[in-house]
TrEMBL record:
Upper lineage: Bacteria, Pseudomonadati, Bacteroidota, Cytophagia, Cytophagales
Transmembrane domains' residue ranges: 141-162
Record's compositionally biased regions (Basic residues): 168-193
Domain of life: Bacteria
Protein name: TIR domain-containing protein
Keyword entries, A-Z: Membrane, Transmembrane, Transmembrane helix
Organism expressing this protein natively: Chryseolinea lacunae
Region described as Disordered: 166-193
């Protein structure tokens, strides 16, 4: 039996979320899931017809909601709310440091992740949440989806650590002085008349 179709949404203004969504898309596709991403550009203001079609055929909707939601992401989640009858199949992963930033998410599967927690603790939280989602078909789904989400969270944790380490330029101590450019060497050539 084939694994279900999964739509992944991300904030276009967040390079971190976009990178995670693309990586999760690739990992999910390799693992046998039919993975879908939004059809939009970075500056899209409205949901596209193609994105609506992709959400319509998805069995699950995943949103990494780690930063303020853009207008187009709000439209995508509203479309998913209208189309997915079983809201438990809408999986929203929040960063505990940011907290819940989505209204009207009742009956959705919401997971709050403490990136400082032990991986086993994070895995247990996700597994317990996924077991609460009604299964439709293959019993392998929750373990497969759990592995997929754990991989995504691992990528999120790694990116978060790297972002904290490399995003802030280090201040130099003392005065900074401008370097002088080396003088150009000029050669004179004799002109013949």
């Amino acid at each position: 039996m084939s694994l279900p179709t999964v739509f992944i949404s991300y904030n276009p203004d967040s390079d971190l979320e976009q990178t995670l969504a693309v990586r999760l898309h690739t990992i999910g596709a390799v693992s046998g899931f039919d993975m879908l991403l939004p059809d939009r550009s970075r500056h899209s203001k409205t949901i596209s017809l193609e994105t609506k079609n992709r959400i319509n055929i998805a069995s699950y909707f995943i949103l990494f909601s780690t930063s303020p939601l853009s207008a187009v992401v709000q439209q995508e989640i509203a479309w998913a709310f209208d189309r997915l009858r079983d809201r438990s199949r809408i999986i929203i992963i929040y960063d505990q440091r940011v907290g819940k930033n989505l209204k009207n998410a009742e009956n959705c599967t919401e997971i709050y992740v403490d990136l400082n927690a032990e991986p086993q603790s994070i895995a247990s939280e996700i597994t317990s949440k996924l077991k609460s989602i009604p299964k439709n078909g293959s019993g392998d789904f929750s373990s497969g989806m759990g592995a997929l989400l754990l991989t995504g969270l691992g990528l999120f944790a790694l990116a978060s650590i790297l972002d904290d380490s490399f995003s802030k330029p280090k201040k130099r101590s003392g005065k900074t002085t401008a370097r002088k450019k080396p003088a150009k060497k000029t050669t004179k050539t004799k002109r013949r008349v």
